[in-house]
What does this fold into?
Amino acid sequence: MSEVIYERARQSRDPRFDGRFFVAVRTTGIYCRPICPAVTPKRRNVEFYHTAAAAAEAGFRPCLRCRPEAAPGSPAWNGTSTTVRRGLRLIAGGALDEAGVPALAERLGVTDRHLRRLFQKHLGASPQAVAQTQRLHFAKRLIDDTRLPMSDVALAAGFGSTRRFNDAVKRTWQRSPRELRKLRGNGADSEMLKLSLPYRKPYDWPKLAGFFGARAIAGVESVDADVYRRVVPGDSGPGVVEIGDTGAALEARVHGVAPASLFALAEVLRDVFDTDAPIHEIAGALSSEPLLAGELAQTPGIRAPGAWDRFELLVRAILGQQISVAAATTLAGRIAERYGEPLPAALAAATGLKRAFPRAERLRRARLETLGIVSARAATIRRVASAMHAGELVLDPSADRETLRGELISIKGIGAWTAEYVLMRALKDPDAFPAADLGLLKGATPEGAARPTPRQLEEQSRAWQPWRAYAALLLWQRAASGG
It folds into this structure.
């Protein structure tokens, strides 16, 4: 986007651009969201930055009024190179917490110098600055929105010591963590930890909750009155999150999750509920297709559902081969009931959930045929469980798409449909498209016309790149409604 567009968005405080760029004011040394309610500074006194990390690295500090840390996220794939996109996902997963940029570059298959150059070109900031800004912004949200002790906030935000945390916060906001909390006048429930997940409107929460509700594994997850509950893994055992929509952000209530696991959980939540989707760009790219335009008008806030656990999603995809969603969900529930890790009794009683979905090591030799799973699929599940447990198959979000697709298809029992579905949900590939899916073929058939072949649909879908995963959701919706 050009500076002319940035300036128009700043002057009008257009919410569509919130989180997509930041406004730094030279006279105050502060950077803001484009929707900041403060008096609009003169154009000659401002600079524009693509990311908060770039503004911070340039020496500006976050505004205490508009709270840049509370802005909707900018999607990692949007407007960046493939290498930067993969690097951002690794950084969000904590890749720089224990290893430096050279190790990150090695994982991405580039040199340290080239990676820094790419980050500077596409984001205006170094990998370290991106990681530091993410952690500080997360810490600020915990300071403002919870009553967690500052030692727990420091741990959750990935700081090695409370002293380092205090120094970093004071250097960034020119106030100590306790002074920041006093400014917010926090009234949070001291017995309930809540995480706020801002999103860019429109956001169709009922549709997304319905998607998860139709696939909810008994005892592991549930949807009730638009509140989605889910058992999640943690360093000290499984916990539970309850997610609902406030109208401006998703709110996640967290039970039984240790502070050290909170940052990772927040990143998973953003992926699962697709809060960072550039919804206006997606709509612009897909609305010109007559087959999609009607569905898009009904669901302008469509989001691509992610996966809580990549192994679980792969198992679900295998179970779903050539059977209904309901049947696959029933089989997944049987697997969880027999092999899943039980919740602590008090947590189970408080939430109504019972267990976590089993990890790969539990299913390597599982006798799944006794649960009503056909022998071919049971054998495939055991193969992928063994491969993932041994580290031979790694569903790494930073991996090259085609390489991972090839690795999946090389496993006996996994075809193109399964691989694309896994890329779409577990790896959050916005361009994944299982063209052979019967529902997609039905949804892509104009009234009175012959149904396209998978090859024809694949060719047609190229016009929807790089948002074919969202096109798939709209076609499934069209098929379900009868076209």
